[in-house]
Structures are given as structure tokens and as C-alpha cells.
Specification:
The chain is mainly alpha-helical. The chain contains 16 helices and two strands. It has a single domain (about 70-300), classed as MetI-like (MetI-like fold, Orthogonal Bundle).
């Protein structure tokens, strides 16, 4: 009986060989660029020497992780990472949802498509371009913002060198770049809702706002849960590429995050073992956050990724 089942499965595979062939490049990409580099995790347990390589470097066990726990600088970096990520979640996560609900109510298709195009275009700009743009806008000597401040009688502010402003700038620029793109995802979720539900709500006397609350939001909930779980999983990422292109030593106190810390320790000070230990810590915590978020969502919302 088992042989018969295996035979049927093999018959299905043979009849869909073209589909499996399409999957092979993706599997090869994952194997070469995602799984093969995991061999480098061994560096976190060594006193790695770039000339001796992984095979010839001294094995030190958990020494790098003990160094991590004792490092006061790391705790400051961890605090910065959590604060910046939480600011981005609390402030930026709800905005695309509201924007998608509002755009769904626009009836003029030309106007609706024009707004969608304008708000998601920044997503396709690299952080190098965006940081250069905002460095010029916020320049204390020639920037538009400081020009307005001086015109109003104030003193110019060095925004990108001031710890009081740097986190706010990170949140604002991240929102400017990604809110429109995230809104498109939620608009697609709304588009999958059956129109009969809106018609039934209208017959029951529900206005547009009530339809948004009672029809659109519940229909978006699976997508919202999925996006939120994925966002929780990247809690310790905090936008490394963004911060690398915008920060400087004057704002390390509030802007240095785990990703930039790994970059500075690994490439700047060539402490590869310690930076690998920090990166492994980051990955393990991110994995645990995704699993925990999925478990809590399944328990309380009856929805989950798996």
C-alpha cells in the first residue's frame, strides 16, 4: 500500500517536472546565499584569525558571548535598537492601514492611481540617495529647514549631529520611504474582499465609515497579522542600512544599533569573532520573536502564519 502511494506521488512529480524545474533556481539561490554562509557561524565560537581561516583559528567556546554580556557598550546599542524599532512600529505601522482605508474610498480612479504612484515611488530609492537628500535639506548652513528657522529668527540646528533629533529623523525618513509601499499591500488586501459584503452592509444602513470598521478592517486582518508578525521578527534590525548612511560618531549615543555595531566591530576594528557573536545573538532573538508572535496571534486572534 505504501508502495502504491509512493508510486502515485512519483507519477504526480513526473507530470509536473516543468513546475519543479522552475523551483530549482530559487532553491539554488537559498542554498548558495542563505544556507552555505551559515558555516561562518563557527567564527562566533573562535578567536578568529583571517590568515588562519575558520579551520585554523583557535576554538574559545562561549568566550565571545561572555564578552558580549559584559560589554556596557552593547547594552547601550541594544537599548537604541529596541527604542528605534518600537518607535517605528508604534508610529509607522498603523499609518499605511489608515492610508489604505482612505484610498479605498476614493472614487476617481485617475486621482487614486496618481496618489498611489506618488506615495510609493520613494520605496524604489536607495538609502544612499534618501540620506543625501535629507542631509541637504537639514544642512545647518544651506538646508531649507534651517533657512526657514533663520528666517523666523531662530538659530540653525545641526539635526543629524544632535542626539535629541536623530531618532525622530530616522522614524520620519523611514516613514517617508516605506509608508506608501506598505499601503499598497493593504490596498491589495482590501481588493480581495467580496463586494457583496459592502452591499449587504449598505442595505443594513451602514455608512462609509461603518463599512470601513465592520467590513474592510476585518477583511484586512489576516494581512495585518502577517505584516505585524514579520515586523516583530525584525525588531532588532532597526534599519541598519538607513542608519549607516545617516549617522556619525556624534550620535552614536542614540543612533548606534546592533547592525551598525556589528559593522563597526567587524570591519572597523576587525574583531570578526565578537561581531559574529553579536550577529548570531540578533538572529536567534529575531527567530524567537517571530515564533512567539505567531504563537500569541494563534492563541488570541485565531490567526497565524503557520
Amino acid at each position: 500500500m505504501d508502495l502504491g502511494k509512493a508510486g502515485r506521488q512519483w507519477k504526480v512529480i513526473r507530470s509536473n517536472l516543468d513546475m519543479y524545474a522552475l523551483v530549482l533556481p530559487g532553491l539554488a539561490f537559498l542554498l548558495v546565499f542563505k544556507y552555505t554562509p551559515m558555516y561562518g557561524i563557527l567564527i562566533a565560537f573562535q578567536d578568529f584569525n583571517i590568515f588562519s581561516g575558520i579551520g585554523g583559528s583557535e576554538w574559545v567556546g562561549l568566550n565571545q558571548f561572555e564578552k558580549l554580556i559584559r560589554s556596557e557598550e552593547f547594552y547601550q546599542v541594544l537599548t537604541n535598537t529596541l527604542l528605534i524599532s518600537l518607535y517605528k512600529i508604534v508610529i509607522l505601522f498603523p499609518i499605511p492601514i489608515v492610508l489604505a482605508l482612505l484610498l479605498n474610498e476614493v472614487r476617481r480612479m485617475f486621482f487614486k492611481r496618481a496618489i498611489q504612484t506618488i506615495i510609493y515611488l520613494p520605496h524604489f530609492l536607495s538609502w544612499v540617495i534618501i540620506s543625501g537628500l535629507f542631509i541637504n535639506i537639514l544642512s545647518p548652513t544651506s538646508g531649507i529647514v534651517n533657512g526657514l528657522i533663520k528666517w523666523l529668527g531662530g538659530e540653525p540646528i545641526s539635526f543629524l549631529s544632535d542626539n535629541d533629533f536623530f531618532r525622530s529623523i530616522l522614524v520620519f525618513t523611514a516613514g517617508w520611504k516605506e509608508i506608501g509601499w506598505n499601503a499598497i499591500i493593504f490596498i491589495a488586501a482590501i481588493a480581495s474582499i467580496e463586494q457583496e459584503q459592502y452591499e449587504a452592509a449598505a442595505i443594513d444602513g451602514a455608512g462609509r465609515i461603518r463599512q470601513m470598521i465592520s467590513v474592510s478592517l476585518p477583511g484586512m486582518l489576516p494581512t495585518i497579522v502577517l505584516m505585524f508578525i514579520l515586523r516583530i521578527g525584525s525588531l532588532l534590525e532597526a534599519g541598519t542600512e538607513q542608519i549607516l548612511t545617516m549617522y556619525n560618531p556624534l550620535v552614536y549615543e542614540t543612533g548606534d544599533v546592533i547592525g551598525t555595531f556589528v559593522y563597526r566591530m567587524g570591519l572597523g576594528q576587525q574583531d570578526y569573532s565578537f561581531s559574529t557573536a553579536v550577529g548570531l545573538f540578533n538572529s536567534v532573538v529575531g527567530f524567537l520573536l517571530i515564533v512567539t508572535g505567531n504563537m500569541l496571534s494563534r492563541k488570541f486572534l485565531k490567526r497565524s502564519i503557520w
